[in-house]
Design goal:
elongated, 2 domains, 162 residues, single chain, 6 helices, alpha+beta, 3-stranded antiparallel sheet
């Protein structure tokens, strides 16, 4: 791939033969997909125009987006939402996972009953407390945001971090 990376988006794991809609992709864009097969081998596929290039391993770039960058993206309503992966959640503390999870809800104005979360998000210039109703906030979530909430909660549950 040549040129600068304009947008990095991680997709949730897909089963063999499954698909996901890449709504943000425009004609002429170059798409690089990094993936791991069922045997744990990593591959990179670069698609541009009518050609695909497949290579073993990664192409040398660091495609991860860190927690702070992800939270920063959530602050802007126009920002394209970065899709989290389990790999990005590994190694995070209970607090960091709580912040990632609740940043999605804070973006929609949830008023937190947990004092530590209320204090943390209360210090953020972008946070506007609107409602105590998680149900109301849940109705406002996009499919990507619902996925993030589910992924983080499930990760916390499986690793006893909730």
């Amino acid at each position: 791939m040549t040129g600068d990376t304009e947008s990095v988006t991680n997709c949730y794991p897909l089963a063999a033969g499954a698909a996901t809609d890449l709504r943000w992709l425009r004609a002429g864009d170059t798409l690089a997909a990094l993936y791991t097969d069922v045997y744990g081998r990593e591959f990179t596929t670069v698609c541009n125009g009518n050609s695909n290039r497949i290579a073993s391993g990664r192409d040398g770039r660091d495609w991860r987006v860190d927690t702070q960058e992800w939270i920063q993206r959530l602050r802007s309503n126009e920002a394209e939402l970065h899709i989290l992966s389990v790999r990005e959640l590994r190694g995070k503390t209970r607090w960091e996972l709580d912040i990632l999870l609740n940043a999605v809800l804070a973006r929609h104005g949830l008023i937190f009953s947990r004092q530590d979360l209320a204090e943390h998000f209360g210090k953020q210039s972008w946070y506007e407390p609107l409602t105590e109703s998680q149900r109301e906030v849940g109705k406002q979530l996009s499919e990507e945001e619902k996925y993030h909430v589910h992924l983080i909660r499930e990760f916390q549950r499986l690793h006893n971090l909730s």
